[in-house]
Write a structure and sequence with these properties.
eight-stranded mixed beta sheet; about 15% strand
Length: about 260
């Protein structure tokens, strides 16, 4: 059975997709058959790999507004190849946002049903969660064995952190095996006084596993559909090292539990 890792935080703009894409790419590079599930209606992870997506062959197919009681289990057509060896993606579309307001049978277990029936051949499954605490996030956490939490060292992210951790505890009523694989502090600028303060607070948490410093070249790589783990650009060698250290810690924690 695959190791399923959700990457989440209800606040947007904290780097969930960047971390999800690079974690999935790193696992694939190590020889693991890896599936990246895009559970975010913004579909940023999908756009990193695919130009066009058929609605009937995206994650929105698991939630049929015309037949809200129908549960999809085996649906291999939702899995698409990427240009990276061993890496596949289950794409998202904006239509997936309808899940939050629609009425569905078993609304928080649809991902789990599909993964259990369709995705057994994978070594790892990474789920890029939406920036919310709604049904899509619940679907990801109910299906996952591990969750990686992302936060920036600033007021809004820091204040949102205990809310997300509390939501994980609630999900454990449904999925008692869910474990936190780590907390990542993203986009740290050491010359900002507030950043230093909040980073220090988060580094003291027992779930902290590493920090990624802010680099403009890193943002450019996302726009260019380039994985940081594959780069040879010298001015981001530091953050590449930080990224690989964090990804190795995630792999180690998921292997040890």
């Amino acid at each position: 059975m695959p190791k399923i890792i959700a990457v989440g935080m209800q606040k947007g703009g904290v780097g969930k997709t960047t971390i999800s894409v690079n974690l999935a790419g790193y696992l694939a590079k190590l020889g693991n058959k890896t599936l990246l599930i895009d559970a975010d209606p913004q579909a940023s992870a999908t756009k990193f790999f695919l130009d066009d997506v058929d609605l009937k062959e995206s994650m929105s197919a698991l939630f049929d507004l015309a037949d809200p009681w129908a549960i999809v289990r085996e649906a291999p057509q939702l899995i698409k190849e990427t240009n990276i060896e061993n890496l596949y993606i289950a794409p998202s579309t904006i239509v997936l946002s309808a899940v939050e307001s629609g009425t569905f049978e078993e609304p928080s277990r649809r991902f789990k049903y599909w993964i259990d029936a369709t995705c057994k051949e994978f070594d790892y499954i990474i789920i890029d969660c939406p920036p919310s605490l709604g049904r899509l996030c619940s679907n990801a956490l109910v299906a996952a064995k591990y969750v990686v939490v992302c936060s920036e060292p600033e007021t809004q992210s820091y204040d949102a952190l205990p809310i997300f951790l509390s939501n994980i505890e609630k999900i454990r009523n449904i999925n008692p095996d869910l474990k936190i694989a780590g907390l990542i502090v993203n986009c740290l600028s050491e010359n900002q006084l507030g950043h230093a303060h909040y980073a220090r607070q988060m580094k003291e948490m027992n779930i902290y596993i590493g920090t990624l410093h802010r680099r403009s070249a890193f943002v450019d790589m996302s726009h260019e559909r380039s994985l940081i783990i594959n780069t040879s650009v010298s001015n981001i060698s530091r953050i590449k090292g930080e990224f690989e250290s964090i990804l190795n810690k995630i792999i180690q924690r998921t292997n040890n539990n």
